[in-house]
Specification:
Radius of gyration: 15 Å
Distance between the termini: 25 Å
Shape: globular
Strand order of the largest sheet: 1-2-3-4-5-7-6
Order of helices and strands: EHHEEEHEHEE
Structural class: alpha+beta
Oligomer: single chain
Bound molecules: coenzyme A
CATH topology: Aminopeptidase
CATH superfamily: Gcn5-related N-acetyltransferase (GNAT)
Number of helices: 4
Largest sheet: 7 strands, mixed
CATH class: Alpha Beta
Length: 150
């Protein structure tokens, strides 16, 4: 398994991965435009030339970052790839001076296994909700907020 930064050549595979799960209601979808613009935020996992995992670190505010768009291909879930991507993103965050990483997710137990704890969404800064106004679920967000000090 190779963990690396993606290039534009990876975008179609990333698009498929994330939007297949989004169609099942498991995570929010991502347009190609968003993937192109945020490509530097991502780490991907590659096996035999195929993208089998992805996740992004989005810089939110002073010392605060979000892990988002985590998606591991269904045939390789529960084999540690998600954990490895989260750990790699946390390393990136540390190198940037981030002190708190949070996630908004339907899979809180995956993050709890890695030391994240739940927090009331209201404790996150208002800026976090800026992008939410474009979400079809707004204002009835049913994602769970978790964070970790790093
Ligand atoms: C959730 C997801 C990212 C987890 O990735 P993964 O590669 O399967 O996770 P890992 O194998 O690294 O699991 C790490 C630990 O979390 C546990 N875990 C993984 N997914 C879990 C889940 N959904 N619920 C509870 N525990 C979970 C694993 O059993 C493992 O536990 P261990 O430390 O006791 O061995 C992946 O299943 C996925 O892409 N799901 C569909 C999309 C999605 O829901 N994305 C989340 C959006 S934030």
């Amino acid at each position: 398994m190779i963990y690396r930064k993606p290039t534009f050549k990876d975008v179609e595979a990333m698009f498929e991965l994330v939007n297949n799960y989004a169609e099942q209601g498991l995570m929010l979808g991502r347009s190609r435009n968003v993937l192109y613009e945020s490509l530097r935020d991502f780490i991907v996992a590659e096996e035999n030339g195929e993208i089998v995992g992805m996740g992004a670190l989005y810089l939110m505010w002073n010392e605060l970052a979000e892990i988002r768009a985590m998606a591991i291909a269904p045939q390789v879930t529960k084999s540690g790839i998600g954990r490895n991507i989260v750990q790699a993103l946390i390393e990136e965050a540390k190198n940037l001076g981030v002190t708190t990483v949070f996630a908004l997710t339907y899979q809180p137990d995956f993050f709890k296994k890695q030391g994240f704890t739940e927090l009331p969404k209201e404790e996150l800064p208002h800026k976090v909700w800026k992008e939410c106004i474009n979400c079809t679920k707004f204002p009835n967000c049913d994602e769970i907020a978790l964070s970790i000090k790093i």
